[in-house]
């Protein structure tokens, strides 16, 4: 399906059969991480709609919109194997008939300007705008998002609460390769050497976790030590936040924390995250 009208027909028919709907929003180039979202969606609903849309609004002018991987045929085949019949793959014109600089925008506020949002200005406004459009188009009972982009998941949950959207947001744990690398559509751009270098991110998170019983500063120092040991990694940010508020935590903090890291390896920008508890 490429039109809003067609996806609404499918949803309407399912609703009239009394079925529950789940939405899995994606930008395509699907990997096992996306399939984990589909699996979670199947656990919550009878009909799973997967959207595939490389949203121009969430890419900055110097970002990789043109080179973002697109492989709709392969995506369709993977989704058919995963039992997904309803794929919504609209054009940019269908989603933004008046142009991608849409006059009506959902803003992420201050939290959209820190961490990932500091390096990618406007990114989360683009994400929230398209997610809000998809939620209005599909009107699902449940929508599934990966935990790897923890800031995105936090902002989507907050938007749904702030704007009274009647949908449950389900976070799905990050899927990793056997050596720990978090799956990402951009991993396909990592050369053999860069792929090994990229493991520094998950190793930094592990090091932070191993130091959690010594507090936040020890966690940051341990992670920084790992990152600095590999000159192939250009660190963008390393931060420890409270998962309940997404505020940076201080040394006195106890309880759950989320460690976030973003870095460039070669010309590929990667993010990763893990949650630990400070006793
Ligand atoms: O996480 C993504 O793939 C995208 O940000 C999303 C949620 C599909 C919105 O374009």
Number of helices: 9
CATH architecture classification of the largest domain: 3-Layer(aba) Sandwich
Total number of strands:
8
Structural class: alpha/beta
Can you tell me the number of structural domains?
2
List the helices and strands in order: HEHEHEHHHEHEHHEEE
Mean model confidence by pLDDT = 96
The CATH class of the largest domain is Alpha Beta
Q: CATH superfamily name of the largest domain?
A: HUPs
Unreliable runs, pLDDT <50, ≥5 residues? Answer: none
Helical residue percent?
25-40%
Which term fits the overall shape? Answer: globular
Strand order of the largest sheet: 3-2-1-4-5
Oligomer: single chain
> Which fold does the CATH topology of the largest domain refer to?
Rossmann fold
User: Tell me about the biggest sheet?
Assistant: 5 strands, parallel
Distance between the termini: 50 Å
**Residues in β-strands, percent:** 15-25%
Q: Compute the CA-based radius of gyration.
A: 19 Å
Bound molecules: pantoate
Defining traits:
279 residues, 20% strand, binds pantoate, 9 helices, Rossmann fold, alpha/beta, 2 domains
Describe this structure in words.
38% of the residues lie in helices and 20% in strands. The chain has 279 residues and is an alpha/beta fold. The protein folds into two domains: 4-172, HUPs (Rossmann fold, 3-Layer(aba) Sandwich), CATH 3.40.50.620; 185-273, Pantoate--beta-alanine Ligase, Chain: A,domain 2 (2-Layer Sandwich). The longest helix has 19 residues, at 192-210.
Short overview:
The protein is an alpha/beta fold and 279 residues long. Helix content is 38%, strand content 20%.
């Amino acid at each position: 399906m490429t039109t809003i009208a067609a996806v609404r027909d499918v949803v309407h028919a399912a609703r009239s059969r009394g079925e529950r709907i789940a939405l899995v929003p994606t930008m395509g180039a699907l990997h096992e991480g996306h399939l984990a979202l589909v699996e979670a969606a199947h656990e919550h609903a009878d009909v799973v709609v997967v959207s595939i849309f490389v949203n121009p609004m969430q890419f900055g002018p110097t970002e990789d919109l043109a080179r973002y991987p697109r492989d709709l045929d392969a995506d369709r085949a993977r989704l058919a194997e995963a039992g997904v019949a309803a794929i919504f793959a609209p054009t940019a014109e269908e989603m933004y008939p008046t142009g991608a600089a849409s006059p009506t925008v959902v803003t992420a506020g201050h939290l959209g300007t820190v961490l990932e949002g500091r390096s990618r200005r406007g990114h989360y406004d683009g994400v929230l705008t398209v997610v809000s459009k998809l939620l209005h188009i599909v009107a699902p009972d449940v929508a599934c998002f990966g935990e790897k982009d923890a800031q995105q998941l936090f902002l989507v949950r907050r938007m749904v609460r702030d704007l009274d959207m009647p949908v449950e947001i389900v976070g799905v744990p990050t899927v990793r390769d056997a050596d720990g690398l978090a799956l990402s559509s951009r991993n396909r751009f990592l050369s053999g050497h860069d792929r090994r270098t990229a493991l520094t991110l998950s190793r930094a998170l592990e090091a932070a976790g191993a130091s959690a019983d010594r507090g936040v500063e020890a966690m940051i120092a341990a992670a920084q030590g790992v990152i600095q040991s590999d000159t192939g990694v250009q660190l963008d940010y390393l931060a420890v936040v409270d998962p309940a508020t997404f505020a940076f935590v201080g040394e006195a903090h106890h309880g759950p924390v989320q460690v976030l890291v973003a870095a460039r390896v070669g010309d590929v920008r990667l993010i990763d995250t893990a949650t630990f508890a400070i006793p």
